[in-house]
Amino acid sequence: MPAPAVAAERAAELRAELERHNHAYYVLDAPTIPDAEYDKLFRELQGLEAEFPELLTADSPTQRVGGAPLKEFPPRRHGVPMLSLNNAFEPAEVEAFDKRVRDGLETIATVDYAVEPKFDGLAISLTYENGVFTCGATRGDGVTGEEVTPNLRTVRNIPLRLHGEGWPALIEVRGEVLMFKADFAELNARQRERGDKEFANPRNAAAGSLRQLDSKITASRPLSFFAYGVGAGADALAVRTHSELMDKLAAWGFPVAAERAVVSGSHGQLEFFAKIGTLRPSLPYDIDGVVYKVNRLDWQAQLGFVSRAPRFAIAHKFPAEEALTEVLGIDVQVGRTGAITPVARLKPVFVGGVTVTNATLHNEDEVRRKDVRVGDTVIVRRAGDVIPEVVAIVPEKRPTRDLFGGEPLHPPFELPKVCPECGSAVARGIDEAIARCTGGLYCPAQRKQALWHYAARRAMDIEGLGDKIVDQLVDAGLVHTPADLYKLTVETLAGLDRMGEKSAQNLVAAIDHSRQTTLARFIFALGIRNVGEATARDLARYFGNLDGIIAADIEALQQVPDVGPIVAASIVAFFNESHNREIIAQLLAAGLHWTDGEPADAGPKLLAGKTLVLTGTLPTLKRDDAKAMVEAAGGKVAGSVSKKTDFVVAGEEAGSKLEKALELGVPVIDEAELLKLLEKGVQE
Ligand code: D41
Fold it and tell me: Of 121, 100, 127, 119, whose CA–CA distance to 111 is shortest?
């Protein structure tokens, strides 16, 4: 055990060092030591304080972890009342404020203002006696607040002892306690994991955390503090302006707004307002406006205040981003990919600068978690250009069937079983948050998307059927499903915007040409969720025919290489939907057929063990299709010619591969001979 005098000296040293690291980490955002080192010093101090309880001081960093729970918060009268701020919303109100200030000062000169973001937190007052934090309280009614000292000690960026010198024997530092957006998101994720209640926004989270009787709970919540002024003790400070005061507070170890500035007149104020408005989404904390303060302190004193609000300062607020309103109904919307999104129909409410009548509820789980019901009063949020959302309900305002706290008037929300647009089944994949309409090709909400995909180069490759044409065809009601494409005539098409006779003819020819395809392309063209080109090819190769794929269950599908439970479930859901099977039947009736993928076990593998190389442009077959046909017959298609190559299939403009084949004496055939091989096999 060290001698008491040595221990006392070491404890003081450790306290100073730990607070220096705290300040660097939480105020300057510039860590000075690794966490593990900090923990080691922290535990050493804890050890000394345990051995020598007389060494324990109020400003010890070990006191940041919280103490014994309180029964209630004692009232605390502020040394100097905490004023409130008047609000301005319009530029004209800001100009009027500036005019009042100049009139009050009887000056025609331009007035300088200290300007700063308006933190959306809770106003508090921190008392330091001889440089040591001794008491912290909420604003309360401005005269008397609640003392929450143990809780405030846990706020990591509040200095427990003032740095530097020159501070008066007693000083009240005023500021705002808040929670950073990132800390809030982390806290809510933690709450959710534990099944605890989530907070609606960082402000509520900060308020809920600060008002804990058990300071150990507050210690586990990531609160932060920013200073914006001084109450008692202000007269003793040798400063001339508010901006100098803020510099002094920063030097004593307080976090202050990095965005603070000094501007001239109402023009400068409005410029600052606009600048902070654009910065707002990227700021790490929520703000609800900016604050303008006459910079010269003697002028502040001269202006004084009226009924608790200073004449020298004003808050210029952004339009509120959150408002209360009522849920009139809950509908679902079908997106272009079939995603089903629950949407709250709201009693119109002005929020975020616009009137909002709908707000997204994101997905089924979110509605359940928030338990939003028809008739509920809800907090609606619209921030910037983000889609309005329902943040939370106000449980106390839920209407009930009777006056005695009986059951709610409306049942919990349930997602419809069928798509409101097309009546197809709604399905939700394993591990998926989003439910989807399985109507795919048939659903009007998904129609355009489904048609674009169907016509795409890697799908049915219908040249000339681009996005613009699809839009027109669908909007004019000419095409509902891919099967309708095969009924289009030159006359109908020529009637469309920017479509000449010649392009119409070409498009009809391209659509006609697409009747001859491959099974793999066709499967891909159906736009089954989670089925890309490669999976479509694997399915075609494995099953060999469409009926086999349609008939396969989840088990059978998973026998296909690379097909897992999620893909298999998507395929089953797609073919279970009768609308989809109907469209396939219509397509086949329209004459669609394919040349690959004959039943895997039917017919001999005529090209088994043979390696072919394709080169140049073939007269009718596309490269991918020729490859698929060779592979379906058991053959292999290689990228380069060697002595092991059995055939080189050469089309127009064949280059070096043809030369190599001739050089090595590899047989060279054309498309017609390839088709013969595919039909009859190799005649040896
Ligand atoms: O950021 C803030 N929320 C903020 C609040 C600020 N930056 N400055 C403030 N200045 C004052 C005066 C001028 C009265 C000292 C304030 C507040 N008051 C305030 N916050 C809550 C009530 C008043």
Answer: 100
Burial code of 258-269, b = ≥16 C-beta within 10 A, e = fewer? Answer: eebbebebbebb
> What are residue 420's phi and psi, to 5 degrees?
-70, -15
Distance CA 51, CA 54 (A): 9
Residues 245 and 99 placed together within one structural domain of the fold: yes
Could you tell me the CATH number of the domain that includes residue 442? 1.10.150.20
**Residue 289: alpha-carbon gap to chain centroid:** 24
120 within ligand 1 shell (Cβ under 6 A):
no
The 10s digit of each residue's pLDDT in 95-147 is 999 999 999 999 889 999 999 999 999 999 999 999 999 999 999 999 999 99
Q: Do 327 and 302 have their domain in common?
A: no
- Is the C-beta atom of 229 inside 6 A of ligand 1? yes
Q: Contact at 8 Å (CB) between 626 and 635?
A: no
Per-residue pLDDT, averaged over 9-26, amounts to: 90
Residue 302 to residue 293: CA distance in whole angstroms = 13
pLDDT of 444 reads: 84
Supply 149's token pair: 């000292």
CA 247 – CA 433 distance, rounded (Å): 49
Reported as a pLDDT band with limits 50, 70 and 90, residue 603 is low
- In this structure, is residue 671 part of a structural domain? yes
Instruction: Answer yes or no: do 128 and 112 share one domain.
Output: yes
DSSP 371: T
Q: Is the dihedral of CA 117, 82, 231, 223 positive or negative?
A: negative
Flag whether 417 is in a domain. Answer: no
**Residues 262, 128 within the same domain:** yes
- 649 and 524 together in one domain: no
Provide the pLDDT confidence category of residue 598 given band limits of 50, 70 and 90.
Answer: very low
Residue 439 contacts residue 338 (beta carbons within 8 Å): yes
The mean per-residue pLDDT over the stretch 6-33 comes to: 88
pLDDT, tens digit, 9 for 90 and up, residues 163-202: 998 899 999 999 999 999 999 999 999 998 998 888 888 9
Whether residue 416 lies inside any domain: the answer is: no
The reply to whether 509 and 400 lie within a common domain is no
Ligand 1 centroid–CA 85 distance in Å is 6
Give the pLDDT of residue 596: 66
Beta carbons of 429 and 566 less than 8 angstroms apart:
yes
- β-partners of residue 339 are 436
* Pairing assessment for the beta strands 309-310 and 305-306 based on DSSP bridges: antiparallel
Q: Would you say the CB of residue 176 lies under 6 angstroms from ligand 1?
A: yes
Cα 241 to middle of ligand 1, angstroms: 16
Q: To 5 degrees, how large is the angle CA 662–CA 668–CA 673?
A: 170
Residue 350's domain comprises 321-408
CA distances to 217, 479, 496, 542, 563 from 437, rounded to whole Å, are 45, 20, 30, 27, 22
Query: Is residue 163 situated within a structural domain?
Result: yes
Nearest atom within ligand 1 for CA of residue 293: 13
